[in-house]
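User: Hi! Is it possible to get a structure for several chains at once, not just one? Here's what I have:
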Amino acid sequence: MKVLIIGGGKTLYFLCRNFTAKGYEVVLISRNQEECVQLARRLTATVVCGDGSDPAILKEAGAMGADVVLAITPDDQDNLVICQLASLQFGVPRAVALANDPDNAEIFQKLGVSAFSATHIVSSLIEQRASLEQITNLFPVAEGKVNVTEIALDAGFPVAGKLLKEIGLPENALVAVVIRDNQPIVPRGATRLQAGDRVVLITLPENHGPVLKVFTGEEK
Amino acid sequence: MSNSLYIVIVGCGRLGSHLANQLSRVGHSVVVIDRDESTFNDLSSDFSGFRVEGDATQVTVLKEAKLKRADVFFATTHEDNVNLMVAQIARKIFNVPHVLARVFDPRRQQVFDRLGIETICPTSVAAEMFLLAVASGRAAKEEIQP
Amino acid sequence: MREKEYLKQRYAAILSSVGMILVLVGLVMLTPLLVLPAYPGEAKNAWAFALPACSLGLAGLWLKKLFRAASQRALSIQEGGMIVFISWIVAVVFSALPFMFLLGHTFSQAVFEAVSGWTTTGLSMVDVTKASPMILLWRSITQLAGGAGLAVIMMSAIVGPTGVGISIAEGRGDQLVPQVRQSARLVLIIYAGYAVVGTLSYRAVGMSFFDAVNHTFAAISTGGFSTHAESIGYWDSPAVEGVSIPLMLIGNMSFVTAWSLLRGRFRFVIRNGEVRVMAVLMPLSALAVLIFTCQSIYPGLEKATRVAAFETISALTTTGFQTVGYGNWNDLGIFILILLMLIGGGTCSTAGGVKQFRVYLLWKLLVWDIARALLPRSVIMERPIWEDDRRVFVDDARVRQVGVFVFLYSATYLLGVLLMCGCGYTLKEALFEFASALSNSGLSVGVVSPQMPGTAMWALTLSMFLGRLEFLVVITSLIKLVGDGRRLMASTSKQKGG
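Assistant: Yes, the chains can be modeled jointly so their relative placement is included. Here is the combined structure:
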């Protein structure tokens, strides 16, 4: 998979390192000359110095062949334009923008650009400590190709009280075991989930988020 | 006066302030948004619209300018990307009937025409006029020297 | 030479706007003639209004025609101030004429009355028992028009100059909507609404139609002229006072706040500094006056409460209606009234005084200074304050303006009191009456009368004018006029000499 990341700073560096470890082909675009030099020295990725919202630079960075474009600059307007250029002009299948202003996350979605908000993530971390305690990522299996997660079901979760077959799990996800009153139950379609159950899920990295959402009902 | 429009202008530089002054003088209701308060000094003394200080890429600022009431929206900041972003927000989220953005880089302009945002590219316009001047200058020269 | 041409152009633009205003003021001067159907015997006096009205109208038309080319030029704020200055003086002089023609007033007395009308003060030399209804209506109309302001009147015409500079010079810089003309129209509509509601309310509580109209005009403009010598005390009716109080409060409220209220934006109204000042001062002062003054003077708690409430509100809103005379009030009560008058009403309203917003700002500055002293040195503290629906940060320039203004106000006040004492009045009388004039209130302890010495009369006249235009417009316009006059003359003599 070829990933184009546009931005700067430490986030850019660590994201790149993480992706190359997973085996992706990464191209970085940063405006800062010095930063580009450092990145080029320490990473095996291709580093392009320039304005990521300039179509010419995107072309040089190989946007035509990119599968993912990730725009994480500190300016929302640049992130929006980068992603729109990527999908409209270069046909990149997945273009994701960082919305620094959390209000813009919803606005970008309405304009047809996937977006996420760091503010949201951090603030949910702090505010919803309860739900964090309920979700425990267990051991990685098969070199990280499979996630095993345990969730404690809250009464407020949408799945509480539903039959397993009614839940509507995404593809490639499995409810492996339900622990109720310390007794493990291997669930069938007719098993009804209850508040207080601890559910062990098997998911792939791609659907991990959506599956969790189905269980907890949390909006991003 | 009966067709007085509610006009919101983002960016109070040379273009923005000029537009604001003219439109306010003619009787329209004008709201000008700029990040830098000192640019409001470029507004003429008979400008009778409202001034909003803030970053237009934040929706709260656009709401403060009561964008949903607007009939016309002009994006005239120095940054193409800002103009494109706020123009899209004005058009698609606030449903402003008439939206116009200034874009300096002709290469970006093409993509945005596809998104349905009306843009004006000073670079292209100026280039055309310069080229026209060369062409007519050459024609004049050919007349003088047969 | 170039400068002279330039100056001439600027003054052409100025005078063109002045012309427009004079035409409209001329029209306003004709309105007293509307009483003729009800009082046909007054027809013989109609000339006293028709004559000045037509002269004003013609003068205005002439100015407009003469300087037509200049009418579209944008005016700076200083030039707006100049227009206000010139127009007010001309308007006042012509407004004085009916008093001279019909009541036999001297020029000084007539100008006093005219200024008292236009500045919505309400101190009066007119013997209302003998005055013709046209004169009484005229007084009330000058207050109504003065309350609206010449800027608003000018922009009520369909075409003509827009008056951003003029509005600012008259102290009505804040607009309701982002177009100055539309804003002026809205103000007029709101104002007219007040007038209708007021008249109907007064009629409902028993006033005659003529009285209702006159008192409504005087109430919503926080002017205070009355058709009766005892003012509102004439009726001695809780109902009449009950109608007057809300009208005074409405007139005192800034038009911007009124607009917010009409649109249901209560959040901003509550945060408004002036509303808060009113909410605190009104009950406190009424209570203080009740306990320390009225209780002992007036028979029965009901009467005492009515008097305390009414007089304090009349003072704070700088209206000037009275239900009682102050001859038997103790000094504490008198002093509280003086303080209330000087604090005054809301900015961008028809009220006078230092204005509640400034008082609120000064109070907040004190609070902030104390808070600042308690914070560690490196902490940054910003000073936000709500100006109707916007949050503004108070910077030092603002503080300086308010400070200078309060200083000017106090200095003028002290000077005026000095003058009045010099003319033979007691300290109490001087303090009260001068405060009443400077703050455009209109409450009187009896100093104002046709027989008062000329110096004192002019001192009061000038103070009413300065107070209404908030000093700076008058001072800067005068200086500019003198300076420009000299420059225009100098060039001429240079031309003649060489």
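Residues 6-144 of chain B form a domain with the Rossmann fold fold (CATH 3.40.50.720). The first strand of chain B starts at residue 6 and ends at 10.

User: Great, thank you!
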